[in-house]
Design goal:
mainly alpha; 7 helices; about 0% strand; about 70% helix
Length: about 170
Amino acid sequence: MAALKAKTNEGITAVIFYLFVYIFMNVGAFAVVISLKGGGEEGDKIEDFTGLFKRSPYLALLMTFFLLSLGGIPPFAGFLGKFFIFMALVHSGLYLLAAVLAVTSVISIYYYYRIVCNMFLKEGEAKPQISEGIPLKVALYLMSFVNLFLILFASKIVPLFEKGNIF
């Protein structure tokens, strides 16, 4: 929402694109959490992700994919969204707000990194395999596909947001 402060078309386009990306990545991450709940975990603590890669490599990889995008790590779609917002702020002379965006992004990456480390590097207790139902798998694949689509075709999609043709 910081880019709305810029009061420019660039800022509005950046916010719309980022919200579009953010919605799909959050839905994907929460679908993983729902899968954990189905496997007997709460899914709301970082420790609940411990050893997830051994129990469900598929879920661990997808969660990593979603978290990297939410953190704004290149080349994921979340990076593009945050980059567009950052540039809109800089072009409008809102340097302090751009710096705040950069710092808060780094802080969020730290927390996402902890989750990823728990999934891949820590040994968890012996827990049963996690099996996702068909609807949950469809949601996870769809969210992953949208992120991939936004990465590969951003140059074609962003102009749609600029012209207001996306809705």
